[in-house]
Write a structure and sequence with these properties.
Order of helices and strands: HHHHHHHHHH
Number of strands: 0
Structural class: mainly alpha
Shape: globular
Bound molecules: fe (ii) ion
Helix content: 55-70%
């Protein structure tokens, strides 16, 4: 599967532009994280790009979300490791995170939401001027972007990254595709 094929498939299955942008942001951070950890960038990036491909098809039903996504990813040619990461990123299934790829997708997913929320409260609503220390501050405000699960983000520690470094890496990765994100 090429990146273009994956993106085309995402766009064919997802109408909501913000959801597509969420997957692009997840891809960007997964790529950066793979680079940081010396992992397979292509595999990690594509996993991030595809991970919520079934969100609209499942109507957001958490009992089927990510099961269908894993199947769709397999049909597109994803490896079993990629499909497993997609399957277990939805905690509703209670499937343990096993590999580094599983753990990475799990903690990157909510980080994108926190960074987007921290961007949207800025007067210019732009990623460019956002600093990691502001995101860290927002992280500590429990009521801010409460949907971005802090405990889940904190699991970057399972990959040997401190929260501060993880936030910096994620922010930089998203700033790198700011134009695609429209932020
Ligand atoms: Fe997601």
């Amino acid at each position: 599967m090429t990146r273009k094929e994956a993106l085309n498939s995402v766009k064919a299955n997802v109408e909501n532009e913000n959801l597509v942008k969420h997957m692009l942001a997840t891809e960007a951070i997964m790529l950066a994280l793979a680079g940081r950890l010396g992992e397979d960038e292509e595999e990690w990036g594509l996993t991030g790009l595809l991970h919520d491909i079934d969100m609209e098809l499942t109507g957001g039903d958490m009992s089927t979300h990510s099961k269908l996504g894993a199947d769709l990813a397999r049909e597109l040619g994803a490896s079993e490791a990629m499909a497993h990461a997609i399957l277990c990123h939805n905690p509703a299934h209670g499937i343990p995170l096993e590999t580094k790829l599983d753990k990475a997708l799990f903690c990157v997913d909510p980080l994108t939401g926190l960074i987007i929320a921290a961007t949207l409260v800025r007067p210019d609503k732009k990623l460019a001027g956002l600093e990691a220390k502001s995101v860290k501050k927002r992280f500590k405000e429990k009521s801010f972007a409460a949907g971005a699960d802090r405990q889940q983000i904190s699991q970057c520690s399972e990959l040997g990254l401190e929260l501060g470094e993880f936030i910096e890496l994620g922010l930089k990765a998203m700033q790198g595709i700011a134009a695609d994100l429209g932020l």
